[in-house]
Predict the 3D structure of the following.
Amino acid sequence: MKDSNLTKKLQKIDKDTFQEDLINWFHNQKRILPWREDQDPYKVWVSEIMLQQTKVDTVIPYFNHFIEKFPSVEALANADEQEVLKAWEGLGYYSRARNLQQAVREVSTTYNGIIPNDPKRLSELKGVGPYTTGAILSIAYDIPQPAVDGNVMRVLSRILMIDDDIAKARTRRIFEEAVRDLISDKDPSGFNQGLMELGALVCTPKSPSCLLCPVQTHCQAFHNGVEQAYPVKSKAKKQKKLSYYTCVLQDEKGRFFIEQRPNEGLLANMWQFPMVLKQDVDEEHLATWVEQKYHLTIHKQETLPKIKHVFSHVIWELDVRFFRVENAKGSINDQLFLSLDALTTYPFPVPFQKLMDYLKKHSR
């Protein structure tokens, strides 16, 4: 049942004119982006997953490389996960890549490689939430479905003066109702992309360019002079800080020791240099911890520059220690001794890429 307050706000909008103004502006002013070259559902899907939590300019080279490497549903479905994670390396939020491949494999086996155009079947795929479902259906298949992201909520919160807190999950349903009411049946692709583009280029978080807005005449916040007050958003929780010792172990042959992270949780299945929480091992006993855990002997130790990396919900502070070791047992399954050049073929989180860059510049 539609919210009565929202209904009143929607009744103030001339829907036909709003659709025409928005869609015409989008087709005339849209950015040229590689995933807009056609309406291939696979490319739309990959781009939308990459664009979650990531800026367009950052995504473009990753998207081009990813599509070149995995040009189709079948190519991605048949790829090795480590190869996929390597192609995603640096984009962050790696569960997106794993979920995407898992979902694509289901499309390959269950739907003969054809991405479903049915909302229920599409939304049942791993990692495909309401936004991604709506984006694929509207952009690739021209089906009028809401695709509500941060840009869309910001735009519509101003146009309709929606006072609900966009940081709360339940608020998204209000915006989905609004899009269902406003969306064009003739060009749902242009409508949804128009809202997204408007939020990215004109109706920005701070200092929106209202005088350039193609739907300014429809904007209730603008006419009341309160566009800066929207959207309503509560402050995010402070990020948790985790302090680690990170250990660079180099053997007599000049090889570096790496290990694979667990197959669940943050940065699952990626590779790292050994690390341990400072609360679990103090500096005085760190070398002993390394020798006992990895069954080797340390004969030299030094301190390397610290590394700090900010994830979405946590901050890593890495105190880096370099150890020359001997009597290493060699490689086993999820633990390897490799040359510095060989390390680059494995997928590493950004903090360890930074550490590898340092090691290359100061080769030992």
Summary: The chain has two domains: 4-229, 240-361. The mean pLDDT is 93. The chain has 16 helices and eight strands.
